[in-house]
Amino acid sequence: MTPTVTPHRPRQRVGRDGFLQLLHAEWTKFRTVPGWVTGTVVAALLVVLVALLTGVSSNQKGSPPVPIGPGGEPVTDSFYFVHQPLAEDGSITVAVSALESSIPKGLEDLRPGIVPWAKAGLIVKQSTRPGSPYAAIMATSGHGVRMQDNYVNDTAGPPGPVSAESPRWLRLDRSGDTITGYASTDGTNWAKVGAAEVSGLGSTVQVGLFVASPQAVEGRGTTSSVSTAAFGDLRLQGGWTDGEWTGEQIGAHSPTFAGFPGNRSGSFTQSGGRFTVTGAGDIAPAARYSLPAAGTLKDILTGTFAALIAVIVVGALFITTEYRRNLIHVTLAASPRRGRVLLAKAIVLGAVTFVAGLAGAVLAVPLGERLSRANGVYLFPVTYSTELRVALGTAALLATASILALSVGAIIRNSASAVTTVIVAIVLPYLLIANPFMPVSVANWLTRVTPAAAFAVQQTLVQYPQVANPYTPYNGYYPLAPWAGLAVLAGYAVVSLAVAAFLMHRRDA
Amino acid sequence: MSAPGIVVAGLRKRYGATLALDGMSLTVRPAVVTGFVGPNGAGKSTTMRVILGLDAVDEGTALIDGKPYHRLRHPLNHVGSLLDAAALHPSRSARNHLLWLAHSQGLAARRVDQVIEQVGLTSAARRKAGGYSLGMRQRLGIAAALLGDPPIIMLDEPFNGMDPDGIIWMRGFLRSLAAQGRAVLVSSHLMSEVQDTADHLVVVGRGKAIADAGVADLIAAASGGRVALRTTAGTQAMAVLTRAGATMAATGRDTITVSGLPADRIVTLLNESAVPFSEVSAHRATLEDVYLELTREAVEFRAATPAEVSR
Fold first, then answer.
1. ipTM for the whole complex
2. Which of residues 62-121 of B touch A (CB under 8 A)?
């Protein structure tokens, strides 16, 4: 060695130090391992494939049409209707003095029971066609007097149950398309409950008494019920055309009608101004239980579950392979700022998985919908924006899960343990809630606090307070709102990522 | 002005009960190949990981051109390193392995093809690295170390798994890197691998440098004043010379290394006592001798061999 030695000066010109270079490097890493690219493509294909299988495997050709309400939503429109036409404006008044329900306990054994949304009252309806527009005022078993119209609208009136000692007088006034409902506890002092604009009624409407008895929720399931109501003090005013009352069970063959329990059937008896009416069914938006064979977007996207496993494996391997092969030394020697390396990995992995998941969902949804409909399957309708939310949410769910797997991989530094941990954290609760025998409280808890809460982002069914239904995750009703559910998973991912960054910084590479 | 090259001072690191580094210090200068030799487990790889900022130390500093590694913005432009030739994703091609590394430093793909050619992997560059022999992986690792055209190159056991042609290539290559003015640090647990390549040697044992000197100085120091004696009457010779105050070691069936007496005095003493001998010459140590002597204490597990004679 001599003092005149000139140290080597690098000739390689480099760009500015930047996070973009890290992203570029991690993207190059990802795309150059064929197994990871394949795994991600397989995840997308699984979403599509399961949608196709769901579409072709369910054949419900020839099943009767689902009644559709004026708002386009599927409805239950089955009740016992004692009616006569009203050609013009007019009003009808009646007193409800009893409403009793029966629920089957075991085979053929009907016992008195409580059906809170059993309904008895007055209705003005465009026609006897299921799904036609209407407005009604009614006494209910457990929710007092209600004014309802066009299936989804519900207004509360005076509370309390009806009895012979405490009847409720109900009145409907029709003036064109405006129906106004009144209630009274003494037949003299009237209180307005609500007024509904029901468009498309036409000039002649069917008006009369009705009794509906929705399915009773028992634990995780439902059972059909039948209710009988006593009416008295019937008074009519206005353009009534004939004096004969016709009684019939509306929507007797509708797919949203579960039928009468036992050997019961709908009926009415009339003596003077007193009527006894027995009916079953409901006038309400259709919930999952009333359309058990119908499909949802979530059903079409069942493949998300399989895709999830694929993206968890790829996400974990994206970092655990580096540890297993000591490649992490090369990575960190090239980029000593470890937190940035982890973040770059998370962004690249998340973006790739998001794009794959979105492609899968965007292909799967229309294909699955088309095939299902071609096979006669009724699908709960969704708006375009809901469909977009489900597709984006599914992609985000997969992307977030992959980032969680990456973070856990960075913490545990072992492929098998990391994959197992994340699958247990997401897939196990999902399997548990997919079990119809899981208690509702447990299922709801699981879908609030575990990463499986994110599946809420795929829910499309609407919960209606005026419809009693087992609103369980199994039936497609999640306790958290779609994005809130996804936020739970995102919370797990962010916390794990922070822990991973902290540990990477503290531990020797 | 900060010192160019690598300056490691007083590294101390404990893994549980094991003291991996116990005051390790060394300097790697430009235009010199520094051999980093010592038995397995002496702390060579740990020192290199500390230099690269991969492992933290309990005490001490490791500076690259005066800065800790993590402060370097494009580190591969300062230090090119090869710690483990197996640190590859087996299903990624060699070229793609270099490509992501290049992208992390903002280097162009053109540079990747240059270094592939430099290490002679052009024909195999698009094959999966998992199918590479260890020798090819070493070349790929060297290519990665060269990517940023750094003034400092640090290689851990680069001769491992190389065939004789590869070893010759590697020696020439390391010399050429130093000739370009680069500081080169090469570790090995075998002195024979680095003795014809290194200008400077850092011999390590039990977590610290036990010698840090030029190759010529080391040999001279180890040879210092010893005389090789060839005689068939070993016992008599040793008795005579011991009386005169010399210390001896039998180094063969009829060879003895004598310390403490000059060659002419030994000849006189043996002649006076009529002890027959066939040769007396100044002893010249090999690097291997130096290494064995230096690391004798530091080797923790070694089988005793019959050739070892206690002095």
1. 0.85
2. 69-70, 72-77, 79, 81, 83-84, 86-93, 96-97, 99-101, 103-107, 111
pLDDT digits (tens, 9 = 90+) for A33-60: 999 999 999 999 999 999 999 888 878 8
If one counts every other C-beta atom within 10 angstroms of the C-beta of residue A109, the result is 11
Q: Alpha helix locations (H) across A325-383?
A: 327-334, 338-374
Question: Is A195 exposed, middle or buried (CB count within 10 Å of its CB: 0-12, 13-18, 19+)?
Answer: middle
Single-letter amino acid code for the residue at A468: A
B148 and A22 in contact by Cβ < 8 A?
A: no
Q: Is residue A462 predicted with pLDDT exceeding 80?
A: yes
Q: Do B104 and A334 touch (CB under 8 A)?
A: yes
| Tokens read off for B287 | 């690097």
Q: Which residues of A touch B72 (CB under 8 A)?
A: 336
- By C-alpha distance, which of B174, B150, B4 is closest to B188? B174
Alpha-carbon span B188 to B183, nearest angstrom: 17
Q: Which chain B residue shows the shortest CA-CA distance from A322?
A: B89
Question: Which residues lie below 8 Å from residue A445, measured CB to CB, with a gap of 6+?
Answer: none
Whether the CB-CB separation of A91 and A172 falls below 8 Å is answered with: yes
Question: From A330, which residue of chain B is nearest by alpha-carbon distance?
Answer: B87
Report the alpha-carbon angle A103-A108-A114, nearest 5: 5
CB-closest option in A11, A33, A509 to B55 = A509
pLDDT band for position B307 (50/70/90)?
Answer: very low
Alpha-carbon Rg for chain A, nearest whole angstrom, is: 31
- Return the residue in A4, A9, A28 with the most chain B beta carbons within 10 A, the one to mutate for interface testing: A28
Query: What is the reported pLDDT for A6?
Result: 64
Q: Is B109 left (phi over 0), alpha (psi -120 to 50) or beta?
A: alpha
Pairs of residues, one from chain A and one from chain B, whose beta carbons lie less than 8 Å apart = 142
pLDDT of A166 higher than 90: yes
Per-residue pLDDT tens digits for A155-165? 999 999 999 99
Subunit contact A7:B76, Cβ cutoff 8 A: no
Q: How far is B57 from chain A (nearest CA, A)?
A: 9
